[in-house]
Amino acid sequence: MPTPIVKARLRDGIRRLPGGGAPLFAAWRELARLRARLDATLQAAWRSHLPHPDTIYWIPPQAVVRHTDWYPPGRPPPPPKDRVFDPRRHRGRTIGGDWDLGAFEFANLDVYRALERRIRDGASWESTELHTRLRHELDRDGRTSWYIASRRDLDAHFARLDALVASIARHGVLPSRDTAARGRRAGAHPACDSDIEVNVGRDGDWLFQDGRHRLAIARLLSLPRVPVQVVVRHSQWAAQRERLRAAREGRADPTDVGPADHPDLADLRAELRR
After folding, report:
1. Crossing angle of helices 151-171/129-141, nearest 10°?
2. Closest among 83, 96, 82, 58 to 206, alpha carbons compared
């Protein structure tokens, strides 16, 4: 197993390749995602009362108001935008704690604010806080998020965002399996290879996890619904699901089992009505 130092040197070497090594990083992400989904599938089989991790839920984008507030215990808290679960480790799990009580809202992300100015005001990307941050990180570190390792990469990133806005305005946000089938992955942003991801809080709130560009665009274009996948459920919400499952089996009162119209209870309520 490579040490952290060796891993860091490998990453730095790859980033010096043309385009910041984007194809290699994309392939690595694909392999990591496949492994995570396999692990999550095995966990879901073990916890048979939970939906399959690849289940798609169609929800209003405006329903995702707050950002997940999780980071590893014992470590200094990262910026609010980085406080999310590791899908490779946590997909399909139920986790307790206060990660669902954070006050940081999705609309406070600089990505959202930049897209808002671009879509609603026609502002240039260069005038946005997001562009300034990425340019500063690039100048300081020689690289930044989303495989950006040069000014050319930076310009291409924002060009892809313009293309993504146009595509979503025309087609809506499609599940990743549909974009693959229709051949729209070519030239797309690497993040579009997966679905928008959310977590479910103790009271059934949808909390942002990943897919900020598509979710922000969907909200700003007032789309009625988007496809999302659940990474983590709060343990108290999982207990709510368990009560509904008990009601389905005649072991609990079916009138005291949570929100009647919550999509994450639909599978159990459908069985309850049979």
Report:
1. 150
2. 58
Angle between helix 212-220 and helix 151-171 axes, rounded to 10 deg: 50
In DSSP terms, which residues pair with 161 in a beta bridge?
Answer: none
In the numeric block, the tokens 């929100």 are attached to 259
Residue (of 41, 45, 39, 161) closest to 111 by Cα position:
161
Handedness of CA 22, 27, 30, 31 (dihedral sign): negative
Which string of DSSP letters, residue by residue, matches 112-150?
HHHHHIIIII---GGGSHHHHHHHHHHHHHS-BTTTB-S
State pLDDT tens for residues 157-206.
999 999 999 999 999 999 987 765 555 444 444 346 789 999 999 999 99
Tell me how far apart the alpha carbons of residues 132 and 208 are, in angstroms, rounded to a whole number: 24
Q: Of 201, 231, 238, which is closest to residue 87 (Cα–Cα)?
A: 231
**Domain residue extents for the chain:** 4-272
Torsion angle, CA of 27/152/159/157, rounded to 10 degrees? 40
Residue 52 structure tokens: 């399959």
239-263 per-residue burial string, b: 16 or more CB within 10 A, e: under 16: ebbbbbbebbeeeeeeeebbeeebb
pLDDT in tens, 13-54: 666 666 666 677 667 666 766 665 665 555 554 455 788 889
Q: Which residues pair with 67 in a beta bridge?
A: 208
Tokens of 86: 């590791």
Give the C-alpha separation, 187 to 227, whole Å.
21
* Prediction pTM value: 0.79
The answer to whether the beta carbons of residues 210 and 194 sit under 8 Å apart is: yes
Question: How many other C-beta atoms can be found within 10 angstroms of the C-beta atom of residue 79?
Answer: 8
Q: Decide if 92 contacts 37 (C-beta within 8 A).
A: no
Residue with tokens 């604010």: 113
